[in-house]
Amino acid sequence: MFERESRMENGNQTYTIDDVAKLAGVSKATVGRVIGNYGSVSEKSRKKVLEAVAQLDYVPNTIAQGLRSHSTKTIAVVLGSIKNDYCNALVYAIEKEAMKRDYNVLICNTHENLDKEIKHLQTIRSRQVDGVILISVYTVGKVIPDRYRHLYESQNIPMIFVDRNIIGIKKDLIQSNNEQASYEATKYLISLGHRRIGVIGTVAYSTVQERLKGYRSALQEAGIPVDSSLIVDAEYSENRAGQRLAAKLLDEHPDMTAMYVLNNTLCGSVLLELKKRDMKTPDDISLLTWDDDEINELFDITTVVQRVDEIGKRAVNRLFELMENPQSPIYTQQVSTQLVIRKSCGTPRNEPGGG
Amino acid sequence: MFERESRMENGNQTYTIDDVAKLAGVSKATVGRVIGNYGSVSEKSRKKVLEAVAQLDYVPNTIAQGLRSHSTKTIAVVLGSIKNDYCNALVYAIEKEAMKRDYNVLICNTHENLDKEIKHLQTIRSRQVDGVILISVYTVGKVIPDRYRHLYESQNIPMIFVDRNIIGIKKDLIQSNNEQASYEATKYLISLGHRRIGVIGTVAYSTVQERLKGYRSALQEAGIPVDSSLIVDAEYSENRAGQRLAAKLLDEHPDMTAMYVLNNTLCGSVLLELKKRDMKTPDDISLLTWDDDEINELFDITTVVQRVDEIGKRAVNRLFELMENPQSPIYTQQVSTQLVIRKSCGTPRNEPGGG
DNA sequence: TTGAAAGCGCTAACAC
DNA sequence: GTGTTAGCGCTTTCAA
Description:
The structure is a homodimer of 355-residue chains. Chain A is α/β, with parallel strands linked by helices. Chain A folds into three domains: 7-60, Orthogonal Bundle (434 Repressor (Amino-terminal Domain)); 71-175 and 308-334, Rossmann fold (3-Layer(aba) Sandwich), CATH 3.40.50; 178-307, Rossmann fold (3-Layer(aba) Sandwich), CATH 3.40.50. The first copy, chain A, has helices spanning 2-9, 17-24, 28-36, 43-56, 62-69, 85-100, 114-126, 146-153, 178-191, 206-221, 241-252, 264-276, 294-298, 308-324, and strands at 74-79, 104-109, 131-134, 159-162, 172-176, 197-201, 231-233, 258-261, 286-290, 302-306, 332-335, 337-340. Chain A has a six-stranded parallel sheet with strand order 2-1-3-4-5-11, with helices on both faces. In chain A, strands 7-6-8-9-10-12 form a six-stranded mixed sheet, sandwiched between helices. The N and C termini of chain A lie far apart (95 Å). At the A-B interface, helix 5, helix 6, strand 2, helix 7 and helix 12 of A face helix 5, helix 6, strand 2, helix 7 and helix 12 of B.
């Protein structure tokens, strides 16, 4: 009794549902009904409870709620790195949408490292997170070891993939219409007269493969042979891979008239290489990239803009659907992109009028 | 009994400490000792427990641990927006450091909105987070209402400020040596011959005020009068404030020879305005900014570079110190910066040789 | 070195 | 409409 009173007087202490019940003169079940907004409570009781809550500045303990109700009001976002512009904008959108529903977001960077992804997924499980949004490290061709499969296939925690798919794991996937958008971007370059279009991207990811598919079909449709030496693969981890690969393409393919960059992370360093060689777009070379950025506007770079905000929003909404109905059938959502035409693409050099 | 067995067979179920205890043939207290690594356990028991843990792929339930032990292995980062480059890099560093200690990071964007900050701090409290890193919205001059003071002064949850201070709340603060660095950056501009230096920044934040202080003292030291109309204030929320304010300065102060930008968020849009006017650095105007970025390298902009990684690391380490010893005396850490000189600052135009 | 038992703060049955 | 009670899965006394 003494301790209870001393707690009441201590502004730094947090009160429990018992304190509220005692002050309101009702049982803690009734308090629970009021704050949880379920069951039925008389107006009189409700009022007393709300007054007590206000007086004590009572906030229910989410941890205890979670243990009992199996809902922690938390979603986890697992992705390569929040430093990546796409991921960054995605997390921002997710957090914003989650907040609307009073959910919090746990951020897990995998640094594009398999072990870290596994570790995060384990942690998430032990934290009883309500849902997971995953941009997996798993690249096309890599197989998840059996002993970790349960982390990806657990029916307990709803999980959806964003951007990248994992072949062999059936989950909801939300991504841009990569193939179609890439097809159209390539077609745009072709329409300007380009036939030798270099491509830089991290080939192993499903996303990039889809974009490559669109690139190839546009070329084929135009009767242009696909030269695989024009497609260069950037290892994710390499710092300034874009610079090295742009240099490689420029050195080995003097006939190349356009560069098509499939990851935004790479574009900045491609520009560094162009700067080094004092090459300007579109006069010396045409440049088209994915994902918008302030840089793109400053350099007038034509860009395939992804609606990351929309993707994040849909991811959260879909996750909530799955929380309510885990049996909801799996499907893939493709979000449209926009080709923002600026000034970095022109007609091929040395071919005034198509000579 | 039947249910217990069926759980054992279901790969998707998560096991509890009871399952492990049963399988290992010991009490759950002993299991707790092994996985928590405290007390003393015989080698024999330890081995049995570890085998059972491995066999069941048991992971302790963090929620239950948290409820009982009052440690949730979570720290919360509350800041304006993860989209901001500085915050972004900070969160990245924090998460990396936290992971080393098996702590997870809850991300809370305030969108520079007071109500959202309050709400997040309340949520954090109810979540029994172990520590908080805060870049507060509270600007100089604004007073925290009494009813919310406890959120900032609670002795229950260790909290430290990063970057921005809240006057009147005594907490650890980790920030760059803003005043000194700004003094030196300004001195550098003065040494090139500039006397009319325009400043763009979000004045209300303590960080920016410190930088302004350094700016002023450098001018005073050089005997240059401080013209407050050269200092323009960017509201945080305004989109492309940098562009509007750069335009204002350029229009109203034709004698201005250099611009000094105190927030990185503003620099991109300042460049847009320069581009619009077809002005080049350093020929038409000199430009110096805070916080490095790919853009700065591409545009050869001289920059005060903050060691965000170091700030994040220190923040986490200090937070852990405070968790262990909440009585540890409060202090401020200033992290050094580096003035990276590129090509955006030159001698004032129209003054060849100082005419 | 170990186990039994209490209880963290809450929700959900089940009575009344 | 309301209260009592039994746990959620774990840690932590306290005995043995």
